[in-house]
Amino acid sequence: MKTLPPTFPEPRTVVSGLLAGLTAEQRDVIRAAAVLGERLDAAQLAAVLPEPGETAVAQALEAAWHAGVLTAARATDAGRTYRFTHDLVRDEVLGRTTPATARALHRAAARALEQAGNPAEAARIAAHWRRAGTEPGHRAAAAHWSRIAADLARERHAYADAARRLADAAAVLDAADPQRAPALIDLARAEYLAGRYDASLRHCDEASDAARANGRPALLAEVALVLQGVTFPQAAQAITRLCRAALAVKDLPDAMRARLLAQLATASAELDAPEDAAEQARAALELAEAAGDLRSELDAARAVQMTLAHPDDTAERLRLGELTVSHAERLGDPLASVLGHQWRVQAGYLLGRLDLVDDAIRGIEAVVARSPLPLTRWHLLRVSAARAVQEGRFAEARRWNEEATELARAGGDQSATALSYVLQQQLAVVRGDAAEMSEDMWRDLDRAPRHPLFLSVRARALFLAGRRDEALEAYDRLRPLFPFPMTSPPWPAVLLNLVDLIGLTGDAEAARLAYGQLAVFQPYPGALGTPTAYFSGTVSRDLGRLALAAGRLPQAEERLREALIRNRALGARPYVALTCLDLAAVERDKGALVDAAALAGEALSTADQLDLPGTSAAAVRLIGEIAAQRDSTDPLTPRERQIAELAARARTNRQIAADLFISERTVESHVRNILAKLGYANRTELAARWANH
Q1: How many CA atoms lie within 13 Å of 139's alpha carbon, on the beta-carbon side?
Q2: How distant is the alpha carbon of residue 443 from its chain centre?
Q3: Which of 238, 527, 652, 655 could bond to 535 as cystine, CB 3.0-4.6 Å?
Q4: Tens of pLDDT along 473-532?
Q5: pLDDT, tens digit, 9 for 90 and up, residues 108-163
Q6: What is the rounded distance in angstroms from the CA atom of residue 109 to the CA atom of residue 128?
């Protein structure tokens, strides 16, 4: 580090020299200016100082300007404003002011700004009151104006700024102050809106402690309801604790009890207690509907939706989504509105109603445009990425996935961050490229809880990465759990993650069990998935592959043909390519080589258009196998096949002879041999049946 030369004068000496040309009264004005801040004008300073008038103050500022203590910041019709030439100069002047004098000046400044009546000065007023002393009245005033400044910041959607102001408000209140708990609740809520979930949880706990310490148990309910729609495990555990404390308070209104039960249900669902979650959610909905309270109905609807685990719940999910959007619009709740639209997306996809999906996504976009909360934007990014993967728009999917990940990391939501890895894996699945899965994903998968969902994700990732032995080991740990309980909403995802491994192992019994469970989705023509993770096309393809592993070949072909129709209707082009590939292999195995070649060709064409390297390579291999099989079983020579192709297109012997530069007699001889080898009666039958040859 460089140091000043020994001959360089000390700041104290420099400032003393600058101030030497000022009168004692002018130096008092400059000391007051140093206390009050960087933006200096004569009118504000005169309102604070007890004796010199505005004219004398203006003269003092001008004299300090000429002396080099101040510099002119701006000149207006009302006069000139100033600032100190350097922070070191201001600091040195401050050092010459006694603490008592500084506190008195801050009190005077706060009162002067209050009298001016400009709400935009709330942050400055609060700052002056914080420096005015430790008296209870000064602390209360500082907290009051900090909260007003926070309100103004919230109106501008400046949630991080609001959180800073509210942190200031809480900091000036001691543990015994009855306003400390409300201040901490406001701070936790602002941090939640700013996407700082870890900090919000920490201040929720502090607010709960303060409410109990100050004999204000009614505030416990407010604390428990601060975080909405945040359900990573640490948050779920804290919310459970806060909700149980609030529910223990006597004489809670039914509407508030409903909201607390709904919040508890969402936490129970996250903590893998589906039976508890369902019971709590239904109780919340009954209380909310009886109370006729829109807010509690919204919360209860969200809780009930989280417990829906069966495809036949789709109509209820759609109903709850419509209800939530309607109520949220009336209450001005952007997050609830986004969640309602997401349920509509999920229901619309499963029903195969792309019109509903489009309308719901437009609804989310509209909400985010007018209320850019980090959490609402995260939901928009997630559903956009999920849809983009299903439709083959991979560059967009990666970009939106990364943006969503950055928001989740900023908020400390590890579960939300993990969803980015789920989408990476889905990109690897549809593209057949394990490079889509990041190193961070592998690290976090190794640390993930030993929950069946995470274990199945890891097993599939190992399979995609070509680590077959490890994948089979992971599958062996999950195999004893078949059939999976169908009470927890993630159960279909667990089974879908294992379809590849069931096929790899040839585990016919597991294939039959998985088919039986997933078959409940077969009546629904649309796509499986969730808006925050991914959509994987129709379940019919997975059922077809499971039927194949179970040895049910006719059923496999039926389901795969159904899947091809459904995936085309969904616009799920990567899944169209994958389904064509699956069906081509089935047709090849049953000897329908023409159909097999056509399907494999379509798979290759689509894969090349969308950049699906894995599908493309598999299609090329399959096309080669089909060609080799045709060559080994074809009774015709290459020349006979060439002539048969032309004859089937109704070319005459003379035309064929001219095309191939051979004699008509040679053509006649070849045609007789072709008909004899194929067992056809005449050229008419050859033309009719050649396409299937």
Answers
A1: 15
A2: 20
A3: 527
A4: 999 999 999 998 888 888 999 999 999 999 999 999 999 999 999 999 999 999 999 999
A5: 888 888 887 888 888 888 888 888 888 888 888 888 888 888 888 888 878 888 88
A6: 7
Kindly report the backbone phi and psi dihedral angles of residue 560, in degrees, each rounded to the nearest multiple of 5, phi listed first. Answer: -70, -40
The CA distance from 257 to 165, in Å, is 31
How is residue 40 annotated by DSSP?
Answer: B
- Domains annotated for the chain, with CATH where assigned, are 9-97 (1.10.10.10), 388-395+403-633 (1.25.40.10), 638-692 (1.10.10.10)
Beta bridge partner(s), residue 75: 80
Closest by Cα among 661, 667, 630 to 647 = 667
CA distance 59 to 642: 107
DSSP letters spanning 350-406: HHT-HHHHHHHHHHHHHHHHH---HHHHHHHHHHHHHHHHHHT-HHHHHHHHHHHHH
**In which region does residue 667 sit, left (phi positive, over 0), alpha (psi from -120 to 50) or beta (all else)?**
alpha
Q: Measure the CA–CA gap between 263 and 413, rounded to whole angstroms.
A: 18
C-alpha span between 258 and 254 (Å, rounded):
6
SS (H, E, C) 211-251: HHHCCCCCHHHHHHCCCCCCCCHHHHHHHHHHHHHHHCCCC
Kindly tell me if the per-residue pLDDT of 91 is higher than 90: no
> In three state form, how does the secondary structure of 96-134 look?
CCCHHHHHHHHHHHHHHHHHHCCHHHHHHHHHHHHCCCC
- Which residues, other chains included, contact 434 with Cβ-Cβ below 8 Å and sequence gap of 6+? 428, 464, 465, 466
Burial 648-659 (b: 16+ CB within 10 A, else e): beebebeebbee
Structure tokens at 109: 């400044």
Q: Give the whole-angstrom CA distance, residue 463 versus residue 472.
A: 8
CB 64 within 8 A of CB 70: yes
Determine the Cα–Cα distance for residues 600 and 621; give it in Å rounded to an integer: 9
Residue with tokens 């969904």: 570
Write down the pLDDT at residue 111. 86
What are the φ and ψ backbone dihedral angles of 83, each rounded to 5 degrees?
-145, 160
My answer on whether omega of the bond before 483 falls inside 30° of 0, hence cis, is: yes
**Residue 173 CA: distances (Å) to CA of 168, 214, 247:** 9, 13, 27
Rounded Cα distance, 347 and 130, in Å: 53
Contact between residue 185 and residue 226 where contact means Cβ atoms under 8 Å apart: yes
First to last CA, the chain: 86
Closest CA to 571 of 390, 345, 406: 390
